[in-house]
Structure formats: C-alpha cells, structure tokens
Amino acid sequence: xxxxxxxxxxxxxxxxxxxxxxxxxxxxxxxxxxxxxxxxxxxxxxxxxxxxxxxxxxxxxxxxxxxxxxxxxxxxxxxxxxxxxxxxxxxxxxxxxxxxxxxxxxxxxxxxxxxxxxxxxxxxxxxxxxxxxxxxxxxxxxxxxxxxxxxxxxxxxxxxxxxxxxxxxxxxxxxxxxxxxxxxxxxxxxxxxxxxxxxxxxxxxxxxxxxxxxxxxxxxxxxxxxxxxxxxxxxxxxxxxxxxxxxxxxxxxxxxxxxxxxxxx
Amino acid sequence: xxxxxxxxxxxxxxxxxxxxxxxxxxxxxxxxxxxxxxxxxxxxxxxxxxxxxxxxxxxxxxxxxxxxxxxxxxxxxxxxxxxxxxxxxxxxxxxxxxxxxxxxxxxxxxxxxxxxxxxxxxxxxxxxxxxxxxxxxxxxxxxxxxxxxxxxxxxxxxxxxxxxxxxxxxxxxxxxxxxxxxxxxxxxxxxxxxxxxxx
Lengths: 265, 199
Known about the structure:
The structure holds two protein chains of two kinds.
Chain A: H1 8-27, H2 33-60, H3 63-83, E1 87-88, H4 93-115, H5 126-157, H6 159-167, H7 172-175, H8 177-197, H9 205-212, H10 217-250, E2 263-264
Antiparallel strand pairs in A: 1-2
Helix pairs in contact in A: 1-2, 3-4, 3-5, 4-5, 4-10, 5-8, 5-10, 8-10, 9-10
Chain B: E1 3-10, E2 13-20, E3 25-29, H1 36-43, E4 49-55, E5 58-59, H2 65-71, E6 72-75, H3 97-102, H4 119-131, E7 137-141, H5 149-164, E8 168-172, H6 176-182, E9 185-190, E10 193-197
Parallel strand pairs in B: 3-8, 3-9, 6-7, 7-8
Antiparallel strand pairs in B: 1-2, 1-4, 4-5, 9-10
C-alpha cells in the first residue's frame, strides 16, 4: 500500500476553488462568501488538529484516552443535534432526547461492531475504534436531528388532529403513531438513498479512501458494506430512541398532549 | 347521577362544581375567552387539572385516561382530522349512515377527502364521529356555530334523541335561542366560576 502524501502546495491549489466560489459570491452578491470562508477555515483547523491529536492517541494506545476522545466526540454531537432544532425541549431534556438517543445508538452499534465483525487487537485499538465511532456518530447525529425536527414540527402542525384522536379515546402512542412514523421515515430517507446509490452513482467515502490508499477493491467493498449496515442500524435505533424519548416527554401519564413543554427559539 | 364534578380546578380557575344526570343537557354560556372550552377539556382530562370527577360513581382517576375519554367525549369547536378520507375516521363506518341522513349530509361524503369538506360539513361529521362511538357523556363546544338555522335544528333533534336514550350532554354555546331550546339546566361562566341560572 502506498498512501498519498499531500504537500502544502497541493492543498493550496485545491483551496483556490473555495476562493473562487467566494469571489463569485461577491460578484453576484450571493452573500455566502463570509460563511463559506469561515467554514473552510474551521474545517482546515479542525481536521489538522484532529490529525495531530489522533497521532498522539494512536501512539499512547491507552483505553482511557480512547474513551476520553470518544466522549468528547459524543459531547460535540449532542451539542450539534440540539443546536439545529427550531423547537426543542427545555434543558436537560433537549440533551436527553437528542444527545441521549445519539449516544445510545452509537455506543450500541460500535460495541457490536468491535466485538463481532472487526475485533481489533486489543479491543480498544484506537486506530479502528475512533474512526468507526466517528462514522457512526456522524450519521446517527443526522438521523436523530432529522427525526426530532420532523417530529416537533409535525406534532405542532397536527395538534388538532392528535387531540381529536385523544378525545375519542386513543392512547398517546396510538394518537402519535402517524407523527412518529413520519419522523422515523424522514430520518431514514437519506440513508436509503445512499444505500441505493452506493457504487453506481456515488462511491462511498470510506471505500474511496481505501481505494486511494491501495486496498483491494473487493476488500474495500466488503468493508463498506459492513459500514453501511452499521450505519442503517445506528440511524434506525437513534431515530426511534429520539422519537420515543420525545413522546415520553411531550405526553403525560393521563395520555395528554403537553405541547406547553415544547420551547420555540 | 351520571356525571359528578367537584372541586375541579385548572387553568380556567375553579373550583368548579357541576352535575349532569342521564338524559340531561347542561348548557354553559359566558363571555368569549373566559375558559369555557378549557373547562370542557378539563372534564375530558385533556389538560392538567385537579378535583373529583365521577361517572356513575366511578372515579376518573381509577381508570386509564383513554377509557375515560371513550365514555366522556369532548368534541372541539374546530375539529382535527388525522387521515385523508372521512371514512377512516368513522368506526365502524356503516354506523355513520343513519346520522349522515339525519343531519342532511349525503352518503357519498363518507368517501370524500377531508380537505374538500366545508366548515359546516366538518362540524357535523366531527359530531357523528364522536356519536357513533357511543359515549355516555358528550362535551360539545359550540357544536352548531357554522350551521344555518334549519341544520341547527337537525343537530338539536339528534342530540335530543341521544338524551332520550340516556346520554348526558354538556354544551357550550353562544346561541341564546339554542340554549333555551336545549337546556335542562343552565350555567353562566364568569372568570373562574360557574353560576346556575334559570333554564
């Protein structure tokens, strides 16, 4: 295997594309140049920092350090899930529904993968555990975020319909069945799209990376298939958990709809 | 006594005391925004509240809320619909047919799309939707506000049939003539309390 080593000059040439976009935005007054440049700088700083941190973490090869890094990643994901919601539960429930569901699904799937399919030696080998956690976490975070956004918006819009069902004697789970199904479906659509298009329309990121790094294409495909299964499992689990935590929080023991507990920013 | 409410308190104030016998129609009137709808919602246990509410002596808190609401059913002033077609809201759909004709609605409305219904059609269908589930008490929030005079009388005839078969009704209305025609007992609601007035 011959990994590609990029020089600063290589990156500089590619970065001119971002500058070009920013210039176009200025000329056409699209007003995205500031956000674009800021995000690009953030991305560069974050990735380089992660590169250096991981280099140290890999050398240390200590389970506690690996767990600490995973915990920091989970904390950041929890914050991001909450930050994108138009409507949300007051703290601490905002973090329990969003972050709790994300972490629950990620830990379940990661542990499952590390103890069955991947089995690195030792199990806490951070070179395998951390990238895997990152991929699952990023995907689950999106799924949870989408499911919560859909759930909160739909439950507000459909309030009269939900209360009509409650008034006629439905339980809270019966009255919210359609809303929860809609939320989970919305959360899973991107994953289903990615799976259907995998290999034909797009080459998934991990497979691309492994091909560029010189891995056998069939081996890379198998690895990507495993990852897609893990991601689907994680997204499904995360979306369901987020929706059911929210139902639990937005209804009460007398099967009432408690939208008074939902905050709008 | 069919429905016995004592010391009911919540957002609209209280404590409220109210009794409804089988076959009775209790009419509640009062200024807009005073909390008449909220009072009905509290009786149906749709909003947080405290107090004693009994149905034929059985305490509301001793049974699951959905079971309570199947017997003491609230029909909101503005109806909500959860499926695309009318039929999907009617269980069983066949039992809606006699009520459709009694309220001057065609049978084909059963297969109509909810989004194409007029306000008046929705109001009557929401009432039918509740009635076919055979509740023992109906909590009606301005049940005829969108209807012309002739249709109002049809709805009232249906409600009187229900009363004759032992259903209790608590009705909120702004229509003074309707209150006169329907009420076996009348209450006036002012901020946080009910006062009995002569029917």
